[in-house]
Amino acid sequence: MSHRIGHWGKRGWGAISALVLSIVLLAGCATGGGGGEEAPAPTRTVAHDLGASAVPDKPQRIVALEFPYVDMLASLRVTPVGAVDDGDPENLIPEVRNRIGKWESVGSRSEPNLEQIARLKPDLIIADNERHAGIYHELSAIAPTVVFTARYAGYEETLDVARKVGDAINKPAEMNAEITRLNGRLDEFARTAPQGGGRDALAVIPRDHGTAQVLGEGSYVAEILRRVRVTYAPEAAAYPENSDSSSVGLEGLAQINPAVLFVMTDAKTTTKDWEAAPVWQNLSAVAAGDVHSVNRALWTRSRGLVSMELIAEEATRLLYERAPANAGQPQQPN
């Protein structure tokens, strides 16, 4: 599943790096003037996965290069000047788009547009270690850059990354308050589960030729479901605990045979290749009508605090047909 930057090769990124550095230098000349030097803005040292960076005390022009970081900024209603959207703003879930307001696309998660980032004159870039370690120095030449690992983070890891993002933008108290509020909401959703546990569930993504990407027990979604007392299919324990997902055929899915299936779909990802197969029709969840199509962008891509609350609400509502008061969208932060 991982699409790393390395396929560009040294030559491709080297050419882009030279172009970006030229833009940065030109921007500096354009703003330098002859009226004397301004006092440098106060900075703080922020530790991250690739070291430490001196970032502005109160960054105002933030660029986010992974969906989870956009989601985390949205949880505090912080608007980045630039964000990746893979060429389509609807790749960001509506609740995140509504919270951040207007932003400018800086390309895709796997190939962010360095020239466009430089033109936005950011004072902080938030990048992901899984995708952007190879261009860390190019990003740092544009603006102070912090690098975290959110792409395949589980539930607790996501909360930890959110705290780091809150520190990077100098809003640690606000982020901690939002995490406390979110945990309270998840507790409310958990109380909707029946006593003694419920039907075991499994989350999958349809793939070509009738295969399925099964989210393992160590995945973000599985951990959120367990957090709100949704029983995750015990057979998913066959996948390594630190594995996000594994690909199986329908026969492999039949061996797990969960009572409930959450199927993550979008315009290009559907169950069409499965529906005529006898193996699919004989699954317990299919026979019982307990297959739930859910939005793939929400369940597998956004991976922040906003999406976490929405997943918990949707899963418990679909399973138990009841939800706590004010369910349906994330609540306003205090």
Automatic annotation (TrEMBL):
Against PROSITE patterns, the record matches this protein to:
FE_B12_PBP (PS50983), PROKAR_LIPOPROTEIN (PS51257)
InterPro entries hit by this protein = ABC_transptr_periplasmic_BD (IPR002491), Bact_iron-sidero_bind (IPR051313)
Q: Name one Pfam family in it.
A: Peripla_BP_2
Compartments, record wording: Cell envelope
Annotated Gene Ontology cellular component terms: outer membrane-bounded periplasmic space
| Key words, A-Z | Signal, Transport
Source organism per UniProt:
Saccharopolyspora flava
Fe/B12 periplasmic-binding domain location is 61-323
Q: Which family does it belong to?
A: Belongs to the bacterial solute-binding protein 8 family.
* UniProt key word Cell division: no
Q: What is this protein called?
A: Iron complex transport system substrate-binding protein
